[in-house]
Amino acid sequence: MAVMKFIPEALKNLFRQPVTTSYPFEPAEYPERARGHIEITIDDCIGCGMCTRACPLGALKVDKNEGTWEIDRFDCVVCGYCVEKCPKKCLRTAPGYQEPEPGKTSQLYKKSEEALRLEAEKKAEAARKAAEAKAAMEAKKKAEQSSAEA
Ligand code: SF4
Ligand code: SF4
To answer: Which protein residue's CA is at the shortest distance from atom 6 of ligand 1?
Structure first.
């Protein structure tokens, strides 16, 4: 009888763990290289905008002056182009998918006060050095002019 063939398999299955999971009641397990969603280490971002230019969906907005980076997770298809293009390597794909919501929402990340303060200090230092270099150049020019006139 054909049905007899299935009896050993049916008996084995009685003692096996189920292959399905009870998600969402148990946390989901993702494969190691799953492209779930995009994450950013915002304090490392320099606001260059390379990611926004690389994004084929226009899902990203960067404001260098405000120190913000914004992603519309409902537009993002997790292609990973922005991750590839970021010169500071502060973008990455991470496990976990966007949960459904009644409307499209975006997620805004803002640099910490400490990171903004350090950036402002660096800018001020660069401006001071540039002003010093300019003054030195002008002084050198003046000295050359006066020695040529003498
Ligand atoms: S993963 Fe692709 S679609 Fe998503 S923000 Fe980056 S470039 Fe845009
Ligand atoms: S490419 Fe990287 S460093 Fe440049 S704005 Fe995007 S996240 Fe920031």
So the answer is: 82
Task: Map out the domains of the chain with their CATH numbers.
Answer: 30-121 (3.30.70.3270)
Sheet with 106-110, strands from edge to edge, namely 60-63, 68-72, 106-110
* Ligand 2 site, residue 91, Cβ cutoff 6 A: yes
Q: What is the Rg, in whole angstroms, of the alpha carbon atoms belonging to the chain?
A: 29
Query: Could you tell me if 67 and 47 are in contact, meaning their C-beta atoms sit under 8 angstroms apart?
Result: yes
pLDDT digits (tens, 9 = 90+) for 16-45: 988 888 888 988 888 888 889 999 999 999
pLDDT digits (tens, 9 = 90+) for 59-83: 999 999 999 999 999 999 999 999 9
Tell me which amino acid residue 122 is: K
Indicate whether this model's pTM tops 0.70: yes
> Which residue carries 């230019």 as its tokens?
53
Is residue 65 within 8 A of residue 111, CB to CB? The reply is: no
54 Cα nearest atom in ligand 2: 1
pLDDT at position 122 is 92
